[in-house]
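Section 3.1 - Work completed
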Amino acid sequence: MLPEKKWILDMTDGFRPTAVVGAAAELGLFDLIPDEGITVPELARKANASLRGIQVLADALAALEVLEKKGDRYFVPPKLRPVLSENSPETAIPMLRHRMSMMRGWSQLAWAAKAGFPAPKTSGIRGPDGDLQAFVLAMDVISREVADDVVRQLLPLQFKKMLDVGAGPGTWTFAFLRAIPEARAILFDLPHAVSLARQKAEQAGLADRVEFVVGDFYRDELPSGVDFVWVSAIAHQNSREQNRELFRKVYRALEPGGQIAIRDIVMDASRTSPVDGALFAINMLVNTPAGGTYTLDEYREDLMAAGFSEPHLRIRTENMNSVILAHRR
C-alpha cells in the first residue's frame, strides 16, 4: 500500500473509538458497573438495552482497554473510574456525550458544505434536553483544567465588577473571583445555564459574590455598571456582524476605561493555522448558521467598529485559550 494511501485511511478511521466510548457514555453504562464487575445480561437489564447490543459494545470497550474483561464479567479499570464516573470532579462524561452530538452534525458535513448552513440534526438517545445539558457541562469539563492558569496569565487585572457573557456553568467567573478576592461578578446566560451556575457557585463557596442574571445576549441588553467583560468561546458561534453587535452591547455595558477580554481561537491570515481553528470552523459550519473562526485583524476591525481602542492579543495559543483585550474609551 502506498504510504500516502495508508496515511489517508488511518487518519479517517478515528471515528470508531469515539463512537464506541461515546455510546457507552450516552447510555450511562460506566456508572452501572460496580467495583465487583458485572455480566452482560445484568448490564443490559440495568441499561434497559438489548443483550446483543450491550454484548458487542462491552467487548469493543474491552478491546479498546476502556473496560477490563475477566471471564464473563466486565470492570471499569480503577485508574479510569474517576474519568468515567458522571459525578466525579474529574469526569469526562459530559464532553464524551457532547462529542456524540457533534458527530451527528459532522456526519452531514458534505450537505452543510454544499448548502452553506447546517443540515437538520437529530438529538441523541438522551433527547434534546440531554444534549443541551451535556453541552453546558462539557464547557466546564474543558475549561476547569485551564481556567486558573489562563487567568493568572492575564494578571494583573484591576476591576471591581466583571460581567461574564454567556457564562455557562460559571467556570471562568469563579476563576476570576479566586484570583481577585475583592471583585464581584455578574453571570449572564440563558435559564438552564444560570440554574447550573448557581449550583456550582454554591459548591465553590462564591455565590455571595455573584449576581445571577437570566438573559439572551442576542436579544437583550447586557447588565451595565461593570468595568471588565469576559466573552469566552462566544465569538466563534457568530458572524462578524453579530460579533460587532455583541461588542457594541459590551461597550454600552462597560464603564469608561473598562476592558473587554475575548477568549477564542485566533487564526492566522491563511486560515489554516492553528489546525484546531481550521477544524473548529468546520464545527461551526455544521452547527451554526453563520459562525466561524476569525483572525486577529478581523477581531481588531470589529472591536474598533464597536468603539473599542487598543485591541491587542494578550495570550496566543494553538487552541481556544487565546485572549484579546481592548479598552472602552
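Second construct:
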Amino acid sequence: MMSPTLRSVSRLSSSSRSTRCLPRPQVLRRLYSSEPDAKAIASEFLSKTQSNPPFAQTQLLDANQLQRFSATFSRPELSKVLPKNGTPLPAGYHLAYFTPAQVEEELGRDGTDTTFNPPSPYTRRMWAGGELEWVKENKLRVGQEVTETTRLVSAYAKKSRAGNDMIIVGVEKKFQNERGVALIDKRNWLFREEITKPQPPARQPEVVPFPEGKHVRDFNQTPVTLFRFSALTFNGHKIHYSKEWCREVEGHRGLVVHGPLNLLNMLNFWRDLQGGDATPKKITYRATNPLYAGEPYRIVMGEEAMKVTEVKIVDSYGQVSMQGTIESF
C-alpha cells in the first residue's frame, strides 16, 4: 500500500458499449509498405488511421470502480463508503473507466493494448506525457452515462537520447455527459523498436539526498499498488507486474511504476494543497525517466503564482522522472 508522507505549510463497470470500431491492429498492419524508415512509417500510419472514423464508447460511471480506485491511492474520503450517485470524480480519476477491451490474442508481445500502435518494428510502448483540460461547470459524476470519443491527432518520428529511432503517437479523448464536453485528455505514447535481443538490467545509481521545495510528498510504491492499478485500468503491460520480463527482456532493474499513476499522485497532492475538492483548469505533464517499485521518490511542488503551479517528481538518484504544470481556474 502507498504511504504518502505530506510535509508542507470492476474493472466491474456496468453498461459499456462501443458505437464505432476501428480496424483490428493486424488488419491495419497489412495496409503498410515494408518501408523501414521511421519517418515514412509514422506518416503513412497517421494518414491511414486518420481516414477511419473516431472510436466512441459509452459507459456508466459506476461507484464500485471509483471506490476501488480510491482505495488503490489510499484515499479514505471515497474508499471507506461506496460513493453516492452524483459524487464528482476527482481530477484524473476518469482513468478508472473506458479501459482497453482487446482480447489477449490481440495484445502486444509486452501485454500492451495495440489499438493505436504503429506497425512493426515500432511496437514497444511507453506513456510519454500529455495534457488534461477540464470544463469548469461540468464535472464527471458517479451515475452519469458518459461517451468517450478517441481520435489519432499526430504521429511523427524522433531520435532517442541514444540516437535510436522511435515514433511518438498522440491521441485526443473527449468525455461528454448530458451537458456536453466535460474533459479533454490528450495523451502521447512513445513507441520504440521491438526488442530482439534481451537487454541486461539497468545499473542502480548512487543514492543522493532529495531536493527540497515549498511542498513535498514522498512515495515508495509496492508491487501490490502496481498490481491493483494495472487491474483497475485493465493494463496488461508486463513491465508493471513481471519482474522476469523487466529484468530479462527489457533491461529494467525492477517493476516500472505507471506514468498515469504518478500523474494522479501529482493531481492528488495539488488537490490536498488547494482544499480537497478543487479541480484544476489544466495539467500539462511529461515523463522523462522510469521509476521503480521499492525505490523512494519525491514530488516537489512549488507555490502557485499567477494561477500556475510547477511540479516535478525526482527519484532517489537525482533524476527528474516527471514534470508538469498545473493551471487553476
